[in-house]
Amino acid sequence: MKKALYPGTFDPITNGHLDIIKRASHIFDEVVVAVADSKAKRPMFDLVKRVEMAKLATKELKSVKVVSFDNLLVDFAKSLNIKFIVRGLRAVSDFEYELQMGYANSSLDSNIETIYLMPTLENAFISSSVVRTILSHRGDISHLVSKVIFKKIHSYLT
Q1: Predicted TM-score (pTM) of this structure
Q2: CATH class of the domain comprising 3-157
Q3: Where are the domains of the chain?
Q4: Pairing mode, strands 64-69 and 84-88
Q5: pLDDT higher for 154 or 92?
């Protein structure tokens, strides 16, 4: 069984993330969405809420499971016996950072392979930081996240 790990903070999970998850689920038998604790990034939503949102957003995808982690990604992948890491690339600006992270992970575990997927053009501009910025100004994010996540975010913020 080919399994892949799709890590991120998912703060919150967006249509762009879901695009990558769906694409990965067509390639791999199982995709593990790994929600990073990532206190250094100071997320808007706590880990429990981010995991809950990721589970809600992916509940229809039978080959996808959601877990959290708070250690080195390569160590976490090894603990799950996963050798493939999936990362999304939206723009050239993502490429340099993702390439550096891919090489760093490979230097820590030479068995790790990083697979880069691009979202569709309609989702290419979406990032969690864009969603958070719009939210902070009480703007409309309904076109950037799934309906279930839109409702969940508003339940958290009211």
Answers
A1: 0.95
A2: alpha beta
A3: 3-157
A4: unpaired
A5: 154
